Inverse folding.
């Protein structure tokens, strides 16, 4: 395996990056003194990958919404039963999740790392789907979907995604719908598995209490030789204009919830895209964080409270700015925010605020590598972007005031903005 | 291996202690200032409000904005306020978390700064004519009122809360942690100021530090502040006891939801001090605490009735709760399956392997406690308040002594008291795409 050591002079820390001949990327971050080891085996495949073709195939195939998530549930099963049992034997705590652009299988343990790691590598490389086992999952996932139907936070965010995006598959729910998952069968699951669970499309990350030599030895024993598969996803034509400027839903809640935001086109170069995300993170904090005029004014007017927050929502092929919270008058908040941005575009930002918010970002980035779980997850995320874990703190230190001012001029185009509101039924 | 309690705890003033867990793995320091008080209907709302008011600003940073700027300067340090319940008592917490001084670019002593800030928030709030400043007070009253009303937004926790209320009626341990809407309008600046002074005067105070920094200077600062005051800390109430119900209370609450929430509340007669504690913990894990538990395997995997079906044991209230999200028409079937599995536990119809899996899973979670600063803080605060001196390793060791018979015996103590269902037809959500 090709081996590199990634170091941060700034933090005085390092981790190991290996590249297996299959193309699998492996990141090992032993952390002294911790009892827990946390391991992830994941693929660059999520709910947005609902249309693809394999090399040599003529046309793209559309697969049912929610299939990546369905596949995640079913991968836990084999001829011999449930993968959870393998982990139960070692006492490890195993789980999995499907996001828009990735699917991850993981465990954390305080003892018997080797056995659990072996189990993780084995079950993810061993699909087993039959009509019966696939059918059985319909009821379980159906209830998972119902649970999210009642979740106001989830509903208000998806409202915004459906408003912002016209064509991008990010506008469809990760778990799909009761109707779309009814079309899933074993054949389709195998096809998606073959396409996306190829080792060249995957990564393994481990952080915490483990021996990297032992991990490497187990990897060499357990990784099955496979030929790389090339998958092509269609180019999504996503215009700068939103699908609609407002989406309203009603649920049994106490006070209106809102999410408003702006859609961007992400940059192709990973380092430039990371830099853009860091710049926007600082800008969002300056515009609407607890030190901003905007938050102060809205809070004093009783229109915003501490549930308000913002984020740079980004992943493979998408980026948007999100602002969300609860308010008795979401429209007033949205209007005031848009007006404030226009004013700041004219008058400019405060350099002193910039320094404060940049300082805070540095501290928060440092806190992010304080425990094994966040470290393992961050390793995976940055590897999928083609970057290293230490790139954020490095980038954060070099962002300039003029970059943030430029982002302010570019990031809030009226045609790319929308609001989603969930109103109380009564 | 039985480790020593890693917390160095010292009484620094009357009813006030400072505990520290020095740990160089964390690049941060966490300080929590915990005010422990009895839960009472008359004070529960005020007590929930005061930490919200205090965390926003203080004399030296008299507006929320000025205070937030100060925290940004301290490398994005965070301050938070929370209220939690522990049996018949409650804990009001003000916390400070920041990177360690060794990472501060200008070498600031961030841990000492944290102690100064927490003391400032608690003892030097912004006063006007001797009373808590009214604009901040009104904003936090509104926020508390919004938060109380927003409990309905999260249906799973709402259903659990309703079940516990039905079990305990008006007992202190079932009071709403955030208080009651109807109390809020009457809280004037005068009343709030009185409440603040009462809290400072009567709370038992536990300060905890977890992190890589040396807390000596911070401790001395706290010692000086609290030993100069004449406080009158109260004794905390005993844990609640709940007898088995003569008849199961059945509750159905109608709400417009897509998924029904089934919640079963059981009495156990076992609490944090009972000799049966470890057996009850192990029983709960086998029954419904893991992904190989009986509830997960049978109710979810075999019958495909739900996405989640889990059991949790609350040692501070002596109760066990099982909850699941199901279709309304399947709720009876799910309930029967849940009760059937409990019967199986009483009859010993579980394998040695299931018992071993549950034990390994619990041991794993106990051993993980020490890997996060908040995990250590929460564990040792609870231990201190309960008057225990156990480490997670000691709890793991106790599990190893539990026999199959003791697990069955623990299961037979579990008696259904309340069966609660949140259900109702949901109108199709209205999407007005404009």
């Amino acid at each position: 395996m090709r081996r590199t050591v990634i170091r941060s002079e700034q933090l005085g820390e390092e981790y190991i990056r290996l590249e297996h001949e299959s193309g699998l990327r492996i990141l090992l971050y032993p952390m002294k003194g911790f009892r827990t080891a946390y391991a992830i085996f994941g693929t660059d495949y999520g709910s947005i990958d609902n249309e693809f073709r394999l090399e040599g195939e003529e046309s793209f195939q559309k697969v049912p919404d929610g299939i990546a998530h369905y596949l995640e549930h079913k991968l836990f099963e084999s001829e011999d039963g449930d993968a959870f049992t393998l982990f139960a034997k070692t006492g490890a705590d195993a789980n999995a999740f499907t996001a828009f652009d990735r699917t991850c299988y993981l465990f954390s343990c305080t003892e018997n790392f080797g056995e659990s790691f072996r189990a993780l590598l084995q079950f993810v490389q061993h699909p087993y789907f039959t009509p019966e086992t696939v059918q059985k999952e319909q009821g379980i996932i159906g209830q998972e979907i119902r649970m999210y139907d009642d979740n106001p936070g989830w509903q208000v965010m998806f409202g915004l995604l459906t408003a912002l995006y016209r064509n991008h598959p990010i506008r469809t729910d990760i778990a799909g719908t009761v109707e779309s998952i009814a079309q899933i069968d074993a054949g389709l699951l195998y096809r998606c598995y073959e396409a996306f669970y190829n080792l060249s499309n995957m990564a393994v990350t481990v952080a915490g209490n483990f021996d990297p030599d032992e991990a490497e030895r187990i990897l060499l024993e357990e990784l099955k030789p496979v030929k790389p598969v090339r998958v092509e996803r269609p180019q999504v034509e996503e215009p700068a204009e939103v699908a609609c400027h407002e989406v309203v839903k009603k649920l049994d809640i106490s006070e209106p919830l809102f999410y408003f935001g702006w859609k961007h086109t992400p940059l192709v170069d990973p380092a430039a895209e990371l830099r853009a995300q860091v710049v926007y993170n600082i800008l969002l904090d300056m515009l609407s964080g607890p030190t901003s005029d905007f938050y102060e004014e809205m809070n004093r007017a009783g229109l915003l409270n501490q549930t308000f927050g913002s984020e740079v929502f980004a992943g493979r092929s998408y980026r948007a700015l999100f602002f969300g919270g609860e308010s008795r008058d979401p429209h007033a908040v949205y209007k005031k925010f848009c007006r404030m941005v226009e004013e700041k575009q004219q008058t400019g930002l405060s350099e002193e605020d910039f320094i404060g918010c940049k300082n805070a970002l540095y501290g928060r980035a440092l806190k992010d590598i304080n425990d094994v779980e966040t470290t393992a997850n961050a390793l995976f995320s940055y590897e999928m972007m083609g970057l290293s874990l230490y790139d954020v703190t490095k980038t954060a230190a070099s962002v300039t005031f003029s970059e943030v001012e430029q982002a302010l001029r570019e990031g809030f185009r009226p045609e790319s903005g929308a609001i989603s509101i969930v109103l109380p039924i009564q | 291996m039985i480790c020593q309690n890693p917390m160095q705890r010292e009484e620094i003033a009357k009813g006030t202690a400072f505990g520290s867990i020095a740990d160089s793995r964390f690049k941060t320091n966490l300080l929590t200032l915990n005010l422990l008080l009895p839960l009472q209907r008359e004070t529960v709302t005020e007590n929930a409000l005061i930490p919200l008011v205090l965390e926003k600003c203080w004399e030296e940073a008299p507006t929320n904005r000025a205070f937030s700027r100060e925290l940004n300067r301290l490398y994005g340090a965070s301050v938070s306020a929370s209220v939690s319940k522990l049996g018949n008592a409650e804990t009001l917490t003000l916390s400070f978390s920041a990177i360690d001084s060794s990472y501060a670019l200008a070498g600031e002593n961030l841990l000492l700064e944290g102690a100064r800030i927490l003391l400032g928030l608690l003892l030097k709030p912004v006063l006007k004519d001797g009373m808590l400043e009214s604009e901040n007070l009104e904003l936090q009253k509104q926020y508390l009122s919004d938060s109380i009303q927003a409990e309905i937004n999260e249906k799973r926790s709402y259903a659990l809360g309703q079940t516990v209320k039905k079990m305990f009626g008006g007992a202190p341990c079932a009071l709403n942690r955030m208080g009651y809407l109807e109390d809020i309008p009457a809280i004037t600046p005068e009343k709030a100021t009185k409440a603040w002074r009462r809290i400072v005067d009567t709370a038992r105070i536990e300060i905890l530090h977890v992190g890589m920094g040396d807390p000596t200077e911070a401790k001395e600062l706290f010692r000086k502040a609290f030993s100069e005051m004449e406080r009158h800390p109260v004794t905390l109430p005993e844990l609640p006891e709940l007898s088995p119900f003569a008849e199961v209370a059945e509750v159905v609450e109608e709400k417009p939801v897509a998924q029904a929430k089934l919640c079963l509340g059981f009495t156990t007669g076992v609490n944090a001090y009972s000799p049966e504690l470890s057996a009850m913990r192990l029983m709960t894990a086998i029954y419904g605490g893991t992904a190989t538990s009986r509830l997960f395997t049978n109710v979810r995997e075999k019958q495909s009735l739900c996405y989640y079906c889990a059991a949790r044991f609350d040692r501070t209230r002596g109760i066990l709760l099982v909850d699941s999200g199901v279709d309304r028409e399947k709720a009876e079937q799910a309930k029967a399956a849940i009760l059937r599995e409990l019967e199986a536990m009483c009859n010993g119809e579980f394998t040695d392997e299931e018992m071993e899996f549950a034990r390994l899973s619990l041991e794993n979670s106990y051993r993980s406690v020490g890997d996060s600063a908040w995990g250590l803080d929460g564990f040792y605060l609870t231990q201190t308040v309960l008057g225990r001196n156990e480490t997670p390793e000691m709890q793991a060791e106790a599990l190893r002594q539990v026999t199959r018979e003791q697990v069955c015996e623990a299961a037979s103590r579990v008696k259904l008291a309340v069966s609660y269902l949140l259900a109702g037809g949901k109108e199709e959500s209205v999407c007005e795409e404009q």
Observations:
- Chain A has a mean pLDDT of 95.
- Chain A has two domains: 2-148+168-232, 246-424.
- The two ends of chain A are 62 Å apart (CA to CA).
- Chain A touches chain B through 77 residues (CB under 8 Å).
